[in-house]
Amino acid sequence: MIETNPESRAMTMRMSAAPEPEAAVGSPDQMVASFEIDDTDLVRRLQNFLHSYPTVVSATVLVLSLVTFGLIVGPRFFTPFNFSLILQQVTVISVIGAAQTLVILTAGIDLSVGALMVLCAVVMGVNAVDHGMPQGLAIALAFAVGALGGLVNGLLVTHVKLPPFIATLGTWNVFFALNLWYSGGQTIVAQNITTAAPSLQVFGDSVNFAGMRLTVGTVLMLGLYALLWYILNRTAWGRHIHAIGDDQDAARLAGVRVKRTLVSAYVFAGLICALAGWVLIGRIGSVTPQEGVTANLDSITAVVVGGTSMFGGRGSLFGTLVGALIVGVFRNGLALAGVDALWQGFAIGLLIVVAVAIDQWLRELSA
Amino acid sequence: MKSRCLSMTVGVWAICTLLGGASASAEELIFSLITKTNENPVFVLMRQAAEAKAKQLGVKLISFAGKYDGDNASQVDAIENSISAGAKVIVIVPNDTTAIVPQIKAARAAGVIVMVADSPLVPVNAADGTWATNNFAAGQLIGQWAKATLGDKAKDARIAMLNADTMMVTNDVARDNGFLTGFGITVPNRKVWGSETDPRIVGHDVTKGSPSGGQTAMENMLQKDPTINVVFTMNEQSASGAAQALKAVGRDKDVFLVSVDGTCAGIEMVRNGTIAATSMQFWLDMATDAMQAAMDKIKTGAVPPVTPGLDYVDSGTKLVTDHPAPGVPSITSEEALKLRGDMCKKAS
What we know:
The complex is a heterodimer.
Chain A: H1 6-15, H2 28-33, H3 42-52, H4 54-73, H5 80-105, H6 113-130, H7 135-158, H8 164-183, H9 190-196, E1 206-209, E2 212-215, H10 216-234, H11 236-246, H12 248-253, H13 258-284, H14 295-305, H15 317-336, H16 341-363
Antiparallel strand pairs in A: 1-2
Helix pairs in contact in A: 4-15, 5-10, 5-13, 5-14, 5-15, 6-7, 6-8, 6-13, 7-8, 7-13, 10-11, 11-13, 14-15, 15-16
Chain B: H1 2-20, E1 30-35, H2 41-57, E2 60-65, H3 72-84, E3 89-92, H4 101-109, E4 113-117, E5 129-132, H5 135-150, E6 159-163, H6 170-183, E7 201-206, H7 211-224, E8 230-233, H8 236-248, E9 256-261, H9 264-271, E10 277-281, H10 283-300, E11 313-314, E12 317-321, H11 333-340
């Protein structure tokens, strides 16, 4: 919701140290008038519009980057097959990004998502392949581990009252160590999984149509986004998540069970991490404890480039998917253009800074 | 709330005391093993082998690792911690062969014997002794094999190079340039990868040594040039990802995918046809031989050995492939598994 009460806006202005965009232009008497919203001001109207639709910024960047790389690289880039390739390349990070969005919407952050994903994949693989456990049971066990990991995060945040950053910084290391211990650092090769537990690789199966190759994992990822979008925008629980992220105390006074909702959000994120672990096995074929080392930061990148505010309460789930796609388009496009891998990292870094700068600019509207 | 906090603190303190309780007795010799990372299976196995060797020598082993490939700061801490723990011997797999030298000099000045495994220091004689694979030779072997296998087609080869990182890690660079040299491609600058100008090279990409990195890099390479028929990967983790990408476009049967390491999973992949050939190294011997030499030095003052013509002990490299090429000595995947022995029991 956009705050339109002029009185409270004026208060905000007096309290905020940020310079107003209008303050830079115009004469002194106009600056006094700047306490009133001038709806004809183009910049302000643009700000208003973008603030209501945060995905628009990232979607525009996505389209622009597609066009740019299309012009630079040419037909190799602009094929249905290459687009489906980029989709496959961002599938795992998008799933993890969905979990991250959920947590960031509550004004939290989860640094343990990548480690939890790999831990769940390892639990699945070691039990189904090395210990001969029935596949369904091994998968169920991995989901239990994911939920448990999320529960630990949630309880640390709500009951031990640790800042989410600190809590998940701790569990990130814990989960990663558990993963190395449980797997012995050993990779389970793709072919052994195909023989012993093919259902672990189910998300790697693909269908071809119109020159594209879509994997089951990609389809599932899109389905997950649709489901989460519905939950976040059409259910009371989803509204509570937004309310907690916006202002925890206000949410509590309004009757939201803050602790319980927060814990459930972290558990949900943990379950999505387990799903991501399953999707990961489908994508790379093997189970490798060394995977996902930077998945936590990559997922945060997707979230912020997608226009979700790091301060909670405002953002868009599909923005995260667009954010992941932008990063994927950059990586793929730069690689096809023959750009040195070093500069790919450079470009992604710029993207992050620009995305958060835009986010800050929009926040001036509703401090 | 306060009492709960207090009881938690006490509980944590109790656990720490229990864990720390098993400290060494005064006259026990302490050996320290410092590896590059904790997660690489090679170092997991190296630690296990070192534990067994420590038992055999009757010494206590403490171990440390860097956080990631190239993490020098953690190893600096590890050396300091080893010295303060009273270690008489440090066996280190250095992340940065140049940057760690001052700390190693300080440790030796404090009377600690420092042995290096896997990556020789610059300069080599900054350590008491060094046991390593000649990574350039390891790369050269798979390069020669690829060239011999392709025969006449080698002159029109389309080669994709999958490296670890843009940080130019010594082993990564040596394997890459060794492979190219073995394949008959001129490398102008051996200090970095990517200095060659041969048109047969489609490009280099980095994988961080992980399957998903290898997969994404391979997919993008194939988009750039679908006719790629030789793929070099700097380790078998990234090779498994590259293989997945090749399989997805139905190219897994007609592309020569070669790698370096000879991990259990890697040998397994040679056996099932995922990788055409890999260069096997013997890291466990590096660590255990280094420990033995350190013990000999303590007991008899014996000078640690070197391989004739080198300034370190070459632990050797063996080419593992089930498709031998004329003029390139190799062993089969079965023989490689036998050589690994108990190490790969799980994988076979």
